[in-house]
Structures are given as C-alpha cells and as structure tokens.
TrEMBL record:
Sequence similarity: Belongs to the histidine acid phosphatase family.
Pfam families, per the entry: His_Phos_2 (PF00328)
Transmembrane spans: 388-414
Gene Ontology MF: a single term: acid phosphatase activity
Name of this chain's protein: acid phosphatase
C-alpha cells in the first residue's frame, strides 16, 4: 500500500501540493453534512489472563472476563455527549430513526458501549421523556452475528485473506521479526506459562498487563524487563499486521471504507432531489483492531505510530460541502482532542471523488468473489506446508490421469483382442453353422 502511495506522490506530486494549498484556505467556510464514527468500546476486564497471572482469579474481575466496566460505560457516556456537541447540526435533539443509525459488532462490550454512548448522545427531551425517573430513552443498536459480519467485526470467513496473512508471516520481513523477537518470546513463554511465538500472542499478554496496570494491580517482577516498552513495540506492530498489505486491507477493512464512501456518494448524488436520504450520521461500535485497521487502511497508522488504540478512541470520517464540492476529512480522537489526519496522496481535505481514486486498491469490487481461493491463483513456492499440500493435490490428479490412461490403453488392447477373437469365433461359426 505504501508503495502505491509513493507512486501516487511521484505521479501527482505537484497536483497534490496545489490541492492541499487550495483546501487549506477553503474548508473553514464549508458545511458539515455527514459523519461516520468508528469507535472502540470502553474500559473492559482482561479477555483471558495468562496461566501464571496473579490476578487470574475471577474475584478480581467482578463483571467477568472481557466485559465492559462502569468506567467503560462512563467513557462512552462522555464520548456520546462529545459527539452530540460535534454533530448537533447533523442530528435533531429529538430522536429520528431516519437521521442516524448505529451498528455494533455482536459482542457484549461493544453493544453495551454503543448503548452507553447513546445515553449521552440522546438524553430524552420534551415529548421523548417517557419516565420522569430515568433520563434515558431506548435507541436501537443493530448487529449481525460475527460469523456473518463481513463489514464491522470482519470475521466472516475469507480464505484468500487467511492465505495472504499466512504468506505475510512467511515473508522475509516477518521472518526477520520472528528472529529478532525470539529471545523475548522465550522469556514470555517461560514466565507467563503460555506458549508465546507470535506478535499476536505478545499483544494478548500486553493487553492483560496493561489492564492490570490501569487497575493499580502490582505486576509481577518479571514483567519489569519487558513491559511496557519492549512489548509495546510488538503489540503496536500486531495491530498493523491485519491490514499490512493492500490486499489484506482490501479484504479486511475495504468493505467498511467502501460502505462509508458510498453512503457519502449516495448522499451527494441525492442532494439535488433533496428528499432522497435524511441520514447524516453513522456510528460503528467495535474494537481496537477495527480502529487500527481503519487507520492503517487509510494509510495513516504508521505516521501516527503503531499502537494499541485506547478505550473509546474514535476515527471520525466527515463529509463537508463547500459550494458544489464535497470533501472528506478524517480525524483520530484517541482519548484527548481529535487530530486531523493527512491522508497520503490527498492531504487533510480530500475531495470525495478523489477518495475513490486514492483508495481504489483497497475498495473491494466483489468481496465474496475476491475471498474465494482458487488453486490456480496460488503460487507454488509459498512454504513447505502449503506447497506440500498443493503437490499432494497436483500429484493426486497426475496419478489419476496416469491410471486413467493405463486403463484406457488396456481396455483398447483387450477390446482389439476381443474383436479379433470374435472375428475368429465368427469365422469358425460360419463354418459350423452349416445347417443355417
Ligand atoms: C489507580 O490509582 C490512581 C492513582 O492513585 C487513581 O487515580 C485511580 O483511580 C486508580 N485506579 C483504579 C481503577 O482504582
Ligand atoms: C446507494 O444507493 C444505491 C441506489 O439507491 C443503493 O442500491 C445502495 O445500496 C446505496 N449504497 C449505500 C452504501 O447505501
Ligand atoms: C422526491 O420528491 C419528488 C417530488 O415531491 C417525488 O416525485 C419523488 O418521488 C421523491 N423521491 C423519493 C425517492 O422519494
Ligand atoms: C493521544 O494522542 C496524543 C497526541 O497524538 C498523545 O500525546 C497521547 O499520548 C495519546 N494518548 C493515548 C492514550 O494514546
């Protein structure tokens, strides 16, 4: 992906510079007309403590493992209030289902975060007050089971993605990481009581230690040598891996980016008839990986610095109208104020049409088709395991063809012999059938 952007810069360098200069002047006069927010859930308990974890007893985590805590609810309540301020011009005070929609991954903590967020965003007012005892109203949050979710959870099966990810891990770059981090993996394996042999497995322990630190638990002595610094670097990198190449980004986060850009395209198309769509705000409640994947797919994650997106961090993708032109601006709000991102090849205010060009390679055309693994697409030299299984398959086909040919030859020979003997028999018969 990086390479593509470099190419872009080379080809359109001058153009981009001009564009950026123009935009910087103009956009303050623009009008915000739509926004999409992708956020991480709030404070949670560890998903899975490691075997030697002194805090692995559930008594330390009264809400259960991997669950949203009261702190997490509060973080999203605050974020909801903040979003209301920022997007007040897009969405009425009174809840109107046509104006906005919320989608969450199908996990307790993301669903609960979305609900907490909405309690800050939509305090009931006027006729919406339905019960004087509670300053809250129900707002729908939509979801689909993770296995079917190719949009937000991005957990629907995609064999080409899995294959490409494996290929990445076998690449020279990642083999070098393995080599570099081997001593650390060994140290963590010995001390955590769990096999640590990948970036992801380091991330899992990092995340657990980080939570325990937030909860003011004293971490074991052995962690001092590796936590947070050494583990942070690996953990951060693990968040970049899932969208490390153009194809990985396209299959993992492409559907979500595509949906957002198409919402905007539809919106700008329909602004002429005016009555087409009233929806101005889309909220997506998801995970650290979702936030990191989006940042990386947009090509800005490395520049920000690979890291674990904190609780309730958000990517804000905003559509701004200036006369008859439409621009996209992207902000990243970690836990403080949002920072405006400089999109590679398009700057801090990217014309909507240019978004489709700049991100062409990460927008899938037909995701289901692109996820289908075909034997012929696979190069043979990926790795021993896969090559072996491929060799097995091709070998099997070759053997079958060979056996088939032999059978055919034998059959032909026999048929010919039968034919000859039949002829003999016939001729003999001809002699014997004298009474005929
Ligand atoms: C941890 O300690 C800090 C400093 O004393 C305190 O502000 C914070 O609330 C504590 N966190 C928790 C979860 O108890
Ligand atoms: C955009 O509009 C078209 C035509 O109405 C519709 O088929 C499509 O689903 C819309 N796309 C999105 C992302 O809403
Ligand atoms: C938009 O409004 C026009 C005029 O009232 C109407 O003819 C048209 O069907 C409307 N379009 C939609 C999609 O509602
Ligand atoms: C949030 O971003 C700011 C500015 O980029 C940075 O200084 C700060 O450390 C970040 N906070 C977290 C929790 O990541």
């Amino acid at each position: 992906m990086i390479r593509v952007y470099k190419l872009f810069n080379l080809l359109f360098g001058v153009f981009v510079v001009n564009l950026t200069l123009c935009d910087a002047v103009d956009l303050n006069e623009g009008k915000l007309i739509a926004a999409s927010v992708i956020f991480r859930h709030g404070d949670r308990t560890p998903v899975e403590p490691y075997p030697t974890d002194p805090y692995k007893d559930p008594k330390f985590w009264p809400v259960g493992f991997g669950q949203l805590t009261n702190t997490g609810k509060q973080q999203h309540f605050e974020l909801g209030k903040w979003l209301r301020q920022r997007y007040n011009s897009l969405v009425s005070d009174k809840y109107n289902p046509d104006e906005m929609i919320v989608r969450s991954t199908d996990m307790d903590r993301t669903l609960m975060s979305a609900l907490s967020d909405l309690s800050g965003f939509y305090p009931p007012k006027g006729v919406d007050v339905w019960n004087e005892e509670i300053a809250w109203q129900p707002i729908p949050v939509h979801t689909v089971p993770e296995k079917l979710d190719d949009l937000l959870a991005a957990k629907k099966s995609c064999p080409v993605y899995d294959y490409e990810l494996k290929k990445l891990y076998k690449s020279a770059e990642f083999k070098a990481y393995d080599k570099k981090y081997k001593p650390l993996y060994k140290y963590l394996t010995e001390n955590s009581g769990k096999k640590v042999d990948s970036l992801q497995s380091v991330q899992n322990i990092f995340s657990c230690l980080h939570i325990e630190e937030i909860y003011n638990f004293t971490l074991p002595e052995w962690t001092k040598a590796v936590y947070p610094k050494k583990m942070f670097e690996i953990s951060g990198l693990s968040f970049a891996v899932k969208t490390y190449t153009t194809q990985l980004a396209r299959l993992k986060t492409g559907p979500l980016l595509k949906e957002i850009l198409h919402h905007y395209k539809n919106k700008t198309d329909s602004l002429t008839p005016k009555n087409e769509t009233k929806r101005n705000l889309w909220i997506y409640s998801a995970h650290d990986t979702t936030v990191a994947n989006m940042l990386n797919t947009l090509g800005v994650f490395k520049a920000i610095g690979y890291h674990n997106p904190p609780y309730a961090s958000s990517v804000l993708i905003e559509l701004i109208q200036l006369q008859d032109n439409y621009y996209v601006q992207v902000y990243y709000k970690n836990s403080t104020e949002p920072i405006l991102l400089d999109l590679p090849g398009c700057g801090t205010a990217c014309p909507l049409n240019r978004m489709f060009e700049v991100y062409k390679d990460v927008l899938p055309v037909n995701w289901d088709e692109e996820c289908t693994l075909s034997l012929l697409q696979m190069p043979l030299d990926i790795n021993v395991e896969e090559s072996l299984s491929l060799v097995t398959i091709f070998g099997f086909i070759a053997v079958m063809l060979f056996v088939g040919m032999i059978v055919l030859i034998i059959a032909t020979v026999y048929k010919r012999r039968d034919y000859l003997s039949e002829q003999k028999w016939n001729s003999l018969n001809n002699d014997s059938f004298i009474w005929n």
